[in-house]
Amino acid sequence: MKNKQIRFSIIIIVACSFCFPGLILTAQQRSASLISPEVKEDKSVIFRLYAPEAKKVTVRGTFQDPIANIEMARNDTGLFVATAGPLASDMYVYTFIVDGVRMLDPSNNVVVRDGSYIESRLLIPGDWAEKVIGVRDVPHGRVSAVWYPSPVLGMNRRMMVYTPPDYEKSNVRYPVLYLLHGAGGDEEAWISRGKANYIIDNLIADGKAVPMIIVITNGVASVPAAPGERPLQMAGVNVGSPMAMTSGKFEESLIKDVIPFIENNYRVQADPDHRAIAGLSMGGYQTQKITNTNPGKFMYIGVWSMGLYNMFGQYDKEEHIAQLKELKASNPILYYIGCGKTDFLFKGVTELRSLYDELGFKYTYRESEGGHSWNNWRLYLYEVAQMLFK
Predict the structure, then answer these.
(1) In sequence order, what are the beta bridge partners of 371?
(2) Which of these three, 92, 125, 158, is where a domain ends?
(3) What does pTM read for this prediction?
(4) Is 345 helix (H, G, I), strand (E, B) or coil?
(5) Do the domain assignments include residue 6?
(6) Where would a tag sit more exposed on the chain, N or C end, judged by fewer CB atoms within 10 A?
(7) Could you tell me where the beta strands, DSSP code E, fall in the chain?
(8) pLDDT in tens, 241-266
(9) What range defines the domain where residue 347 resides?
(10) Contact (CB, 8 A) for 258 and 217
(11) DSSP label at 277?
């Protein structure tokens, strides 16, 4: 009798699963029904992952400085939960690590990419996230993927070009900011992770920034474009080697290929007073190399999270000092150095500033909380953009 009851129960369950599929949830359905991340009223965040076969799950994200794994607690259904915060209003990224394997949050449909780093996005409400880096109901500029010839590098290359609202409808000539990414990144990083277009849209709408064109290049000279945009035979090219930073070919190409292309194909004010360049980490190194060897080419310069570049070897201090003296003589309107207090390159930034102080080279210094992170680089862009071309 007992066996018959069991068989009858199984038949009922199977039948109900066909008639009412919502009664029996698969692991995928359970994950899809979860809310993760959940931002509470006090701006703390709950992360959830349904992983009944997992032994250990952690969450790792930029909401912690330094970045560290937070262990998630498991209940008897296989649901893992962790809480972080309260957090300041900003954009953060995170991933789950399930038994040593990194994965995106399956309950979160918003991801961002910076080179090989593809992570789930977390946005904490507040003035910064909503008014500065967020999407507001204001006029928006256009972001275009533009291919251009590079005789210096012997290939066609791809860059992202932001044109301000009403560019297509006006006859105005605009100033230009050349914005460089960091090591491992590409021309899409400042859009996906940096929110550069929305930062500028919002500043222009608020009357805090001059309408400008922003040119975001791929700073790795050995490849033409971001991974998904390269010819198939170049898909496996290594872009993380030190040579990607120190060959000098990208710097040459920006001067000889990129700037002439922009000034020949866009309505720009093609003079040093309306030309700016800024970059983070590797892009800060490239910014230094470009401006040190082309004094007077850019009147606005931003070096973010990058210090004295003697760390890369083949450093000729006397040559560097001679270049800086010429750059000083060109009298740039703005030279903005930014670095986080816990940035691993903080010592190099301190050495850079000491050299500039020794030479009497004027600069604006911004020391912010946190480390080598997009939270800081978005902040520096927001601040610098308000100083440009005024």
Answers:
(1) none
(2) 125
(3) 0.88
(4) coil
(5) no
(6) N
(7) 38-39, 45-50, 57-61, 69-71, 73-74, 79-84, 91-98, 101-103, 111-114, 117-123, 142-150, 155-163, 176-180, 213-216, 275-280, 300-304, 334-340, 364-368
(8) 445 566 789 999 999 999 999 999 99
(9) 131-385
(10) yes
(11) E
